[in-house]
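To the team - iron/sulfur cluster complex, inputs and output below.
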Amino acid sequence: MSGDILKIEDLKVYYPVRKGMMGKTQYVKAVDGVSLNVHKGEVLGIVGESGCGKSTLGKAVCKLIPVTDGNIVLNDMDIARMSENQLRPYRKQIQMIFQDPYASLNPRMSVHDIIAEPMEIHKMYSTKEEIDQKVTELLREVGLDDYHAQRYPHEFSGGQRQRIGIARALATEPDLIIADEPVSALDVSIQSQVLNLLSKLLKERNLTMIFIAHDLSVVEHISNRVVVMYLGNIVEEGTSQELYENPLHPYTKALLDAHPIPDPTKRKERVLLEGTIPSALNPPTGCKFHTRCKQCMEICKQKAPEKYSVNADHFVYCHLYDGMKSAE
Ligand code: SF4
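Output:
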């Protein structure tokens, strides 16, 4: 791994919401000042409960939704405020694999046309034969057969449709792939097949990927580093090993404890996560996790915690670590 392919700087994505006919416009702060880097060749996992802003962050980086503030620097170019025309050359560099393999494929297009479309849009090949050849190669790479090219999405199972979505994402030979909960809509038995395929492709193609999931066990196996998000903010960031062996933030600990541990000798007392994530329309003051945190102190209700550096690769935002070296 070398260098950063993507730098996200103080990114904000707010959605306006008007209350009543004459009401004042309020803002849902879906992503509220997120900064992170993605190194070339790594898989960065982003985890958190539904509503934490992880999918919004992925869509904002793909420029599928507008950004309120902050920078998205892709290969040294800030794309955050580019117009659609300016963006065109960069669209090829980032591709997305969507959560729902049923909704993300056009039912009226053949599999060939679905995979060929991005290559045609970006004028990657000059002849139809070259595109046909590439479609065949991509189908084989994701474990499908040549004859599948002439079929339509409804003729495939969920796992096969996600393979088609992966082939489409690979078609432009992107620098960065954003996989937004790519296996959560699939049966458990199929999930591991699709994860194994992604792992194989990551190694063979030396891909860089942001892997978004709510399931920590899925992220652990595929990611080099993991970022934990809560209510629009990062709360902890570290290498997969560090984060799973030495989680520090009470929210990360609770997420990890929510998972069953098969080995009874390794079971310990669990920190259970109670209540639901508060509304991003009216987030709690201070540390946004304080309404659910069993270790909440007075300062947590008033002041948002700083970013503290545990070591060069591990950061935590929590007042329990006040006194540690500030990372800002
Ligand atoms: Fe809990 Fe306070 Fe840490 Fe927030 S800052 S996670 S409320 S201890």
